[in-house]
Write a structure and sequence with these properties.
- By secondary structure, the protein is α/β, with parallel strands linked by helices.
- Helices cover about 45% and strands about 15% of the residues.
- The protein has 23 helices and 17 strands.
- Strands 3-4-2-5-6-1-7 form a seven-stranded parallel β-sheet, sandwiched between helices.
- Helix 13 links the parallel strand 12 (about 305-310) and strand 13 (about 335-340).
- The chain is elongated, with a radius of gyration of 26 Å.
- The model is unreliable at about 1-5 and about 520-530 (pLDDT under 50).
- It binds adenosine-5'-diphosphate and zinc ion.
- Adenosine-5'-diphosphate binds next to helix 3.
- Zinc ion binds near residues 381, 398, 399, 404 and 405.
- Belongs to the helicase family. RecQ subfamily.
- Its cofactor is Mg(2+); Zn(2+).
- Keywords: ATP-binding, DNA damage, DNA recombination, DNA repair, DNA-binding, Helicase, Hydrolase, Isomerase, Metal-binding, Nucleotide-binding, Zinc.
Length: about 525
């Protein structure tokens, strides 16, 4: 051993060997641990699976007193505490799932200085009774896990996290460490402000997950596409399939099961007992697929998740990154696979418009969605785009392990096609005072005399049939990309199409519209009615 290393180092390292059985620290772990052991505040930004837990567990073991861990993941506390106890760490938790006697025991252990780590839910920590209890014991460090829950933006916001700012006032001498896997600058700033951590040192790990292969395929028949993907590449592997609605979670799980793939559903509408059973089967069994809404996954620590599949578009890159990040924590090759299509764009745009929140909230939601859409539509390296979004310079520029690197998409000059689609929307609006959804616009472009086209006399429009040079699938691709690029907008509960400010420049021929070519296969696979 290095005899010149400071004592703190060797104690932390000895704890890593002795308690956790690991040979060396990973990435920023050592720097974080040294800083916190020495009494400094820290903000730790590390991707999921990066090893955040040790960053507070080791300081809690090395410093005198009990480390208090604030975590919103009540369902996982028992597991976390059991895992620590199995390693000989004196750990306990306090949350609403506990009986009175059990809590009493933990309180007594804490007061007697017999706990290394105490896990608490944020709603419990803010109670006077809890604060008084904590004041009567000795605390080594406060760890605030999933710290992005304090950020007002995002689906994980927990109002109870706001009261955590008082920890610094009440315990000025106890170091605080906030940890999150959410990485944007705006979130960092919100965390430091709201948790009152102005002098915390920031430790930012690389967000690159080189073993994850990112792929986004055009959506045609998503369940079948998923099945083919699993059969071709992930037979017998454990993985997570994310769907937007509970209904599609159920149907997808049934579909996979019927096709010989072991799959269980998970969503907030299921019985708590069923959810817990499915979660623990996923953690314990090999090769189980969980089909889930985003209710599943925060805090799930399963190293050998070989794939994460999205059948619906996530609302933001943050969500996509966090969800896909659950794949390949063991560092072995894994796949992040998503099927994405026109209806995803329309659906998400509609959700934002009809959703709650004021104008500013909607604008932010739209900006998050735009970034996600840009990732879907890019012809550049996906990993590069992801890292750039998180403020990290991608290196090398093309990763060689994403679909756009492996098979660079062809692009074409879609200016004329864009003009045709936009003129159709304009004609309907100006000449008829009407707005329609994508299906009708495409039928008009293709010159299809469907019942609805006849009903509205749309075969009399001058634009009727001007788009017969492209297939239906190609038109869906054009409309989808126009929506993604902000050259078309979605309105109202029916998702009718309307122009944006930017549309004018295309109609006036002031700008070109480069588009990604749609792969032939899924377009041809669509059944075509009419003609
Ligand atoms: P996070 O909370 O950042 O998602 P965890 O703390 O759960 O990540 O760690 C992810 C996995 O990596 C765990 O299985 C953990 O035991 C393992 N791990 C963490 N640090 C090390 C290390 N220094 N050496 C070996 N394995 C580690
Ligand atoms: Zn790439």
């Amino acid at each position: 051993a290095d005899s010149e290393a400071p004592a703190i180092d060797s104690e932390a390292l000895a704890t890593l060997h002795r308690v956790f059985g690991f040979g060396a620290f990973r990435g920023e772990q050592q720097a974080v641990i040294e800083h916190v052991v020495a009494g400094g505040d820290a903000l730790v930004l590390m991707p999921t699976g990066g090893g955040k837990s040790l960053c507070y567990q080791i300081p809690a073991l090395v410093r005198p007193g009990t480390g208090v861990v604030v975590s919103p993941l009540i369902a996982l506390m028992q597991d976390q505490v059991d895992a620590l106890r199995a390693l000989g760490v004196r750990a306990g938790f306090m949350n609403s799932t506990q009986g009175f006697d059990e809590r009493r025991t933990v309180e007594a252990e804490f007061l007697a200085g017999e706990l290394d780590l105490l896990y608490l839910a944020p709603e419990r920590l803010r109670l006077d009774a809890t604060l008084n209890l904590l004041s009567r014991g000795k605390i080594s460090v406060f760890a605030i896990d999933e710290a992005h829950c304090v950020a007002q933006w995002g689906h994980d916001f927990r109002p109870d996290y706001l009261s955590l700012s008082l920890l610094g006032e009440r315990w000025p001498d106890v170091p605080r460490i906030a940890l999150t896997a959410t990485a944007t600058r705006a979130t960092h700033q919100e965390i430091t402000e709201r948790l009152n951590l102005p002098t915390a040192r920031h430790f930012v790990a690389s967000f690159d997950r080189p073993n994850i292969q990112y792929r986004i395929v055009p959506k045609a028949d998503p369940k079948k596409q998923l099945l083919a993907f699993l059969r071709e590449e992930h037979t017998g592997d454990a993985g997570i399939v994310y769907c937007l609605s509970r209904n599609s979670v159920e149907r997808t799980a049934e579909f996979l099961t019927a096709n010989g793939i072991a799959a269980v559903p998970y969503h907030a509408g299921l019985d708590a007992a069923v959810r817990a059973a499915h979660q623990s089967r996923f953690l314990r069994e090999e090769g189980l697929v969980v089909v889930a809404t985003i209710a599943f996954g925060m805090g799930i620590d399963k190293p050998d998740v070989r794939f994460v599949a999205h059948l619906d578009l996530p609302k933001s890159i943050e969500g996509y990154y966090q969800e896909t990040g659950r794949a390949g924590r063991d560092g072995l090759p894994s796949t992040a696979w998503m099927a994405y299509g026109l209806n995803d764009v329309i659906q998400q745009r509609k959700l934002i418009q009809s959703g709650e929140g004021d104008e500013a909230f909607r604008r932010r939601a739209a900006a998050h969605l735009d970034a996600m859409l840009a990732l879907c539509e890019t012809a550049q390296c996906r990993r590069g785009q992801l890292l750039a979004y998180f403020g990290q310079d991608p290196e090398p520029v093309a990763c060689g392990n994403c679909d756009t690197c492996l098979t660079p998409p062809e692009t074409w000059d879609g200016t004329v096609a864009a003009q045709k689609a936009l003129s159709t929307v304009v004609r309907l609006q100006r000449e008829r005072g009407q707005k329609f959804g994508a299906v009708q616009i495409i039928d008009i472009l293709l010159g299809k005399r469907t019942a609805k086209v006849i009903q509205f006399d749309h075969d009399q429009l001058s634009v009727f049939g001007i788009g017969q040079d492209l297939t239906e699938g190609e038109w869906r691709g054009v409309i989808r990309q126009l929506l993604a690029q902000g050259l078309l907008a979605v309105e109202g509960e029916y998702g009718t199409l309307t122009l944006t400010e930017a549309s004018g420049s295309v109609l006036r021929r002031e700008r070109e519209v480069p588009l990604r070519k749609e792969p032939k296969k899924p377009a041809a696979a669509r059944s075509r009615s009419g003609s």
